[in-house]
Design brief:
The structure is a single chain. The chain has 145 residues and is mostly helical. Helices cover 80% and strands 0% of the residues. It is built from seven helices and no strands. α2 packs across α4. The longest helix is centred in the middle third of the chain and has 26 residues.
Length: 145
């Protein structure tokens, strides 16, 4: 067996920009969990008092928490379908940010300063999507079925 064939059988270790994404995913998961913990005590009141967009945003927080946890497991185990799920997750996060903007705009509210950070994070999500689509490092790392 040649050296190239041996390298193709084994995935590359998580490193470089993939390590940066893994750390960002860990931080995001911690933030999602803290958001869910804050929402849980008044969940029924929140759902009754909010419009459908706000309810989708609350539901999106729960979904993002579950999916980010699953992605952490798939990422660390280097499953071949993890990059596709990460791309879907990032698109979902962008959609929730857009819904948040639509909700604030439709109620005539001034966007809080924190939303500008959310726009920046959405832009970073777009960069990650392109990275997971085009990177050779991703293809060489996530080869386990």
């Amino acid at each position: 067996m040649s050296n190239n064939e041996a390298n193709e059988l084994y995935p590359k270790p998580i490193g470089g920009w993939l390590l940066v994404y893994l750390i960002a995913l860990l931080i995001s998961e911690a933030m999602y969990i803290s958001g869910v913990i804050r929402l849980l005590p008044d969940l029924t009141n929140l759902i009754e008092e909010r419009n459908w967009i706000q309810n989708v945003i609350v539901l999106g927080t729960f979904i993002k928490t579950l999916i980010a946890g699953l992605l952490l497991l798939l990422f660390i185990s280097k499953k071949s379908y993890a990059p596709r799920l990460i791309i879907i997750f990032e698109v979902f996060c962008i959609a929730i940010r857009i819904l948040t903007y639509i909700d604030s705009y439709s109620r005539g509210q001034i966007l809080p300063n924190s939303y500008h950070l959310s726009i920046l994070v959405g832009g970073i999500s777009i960069i990650w999507i392109f990275y997971f689509l085009k990177s050779n490092r991703v293809k060489e790392t996530f080869i386990n079925g």
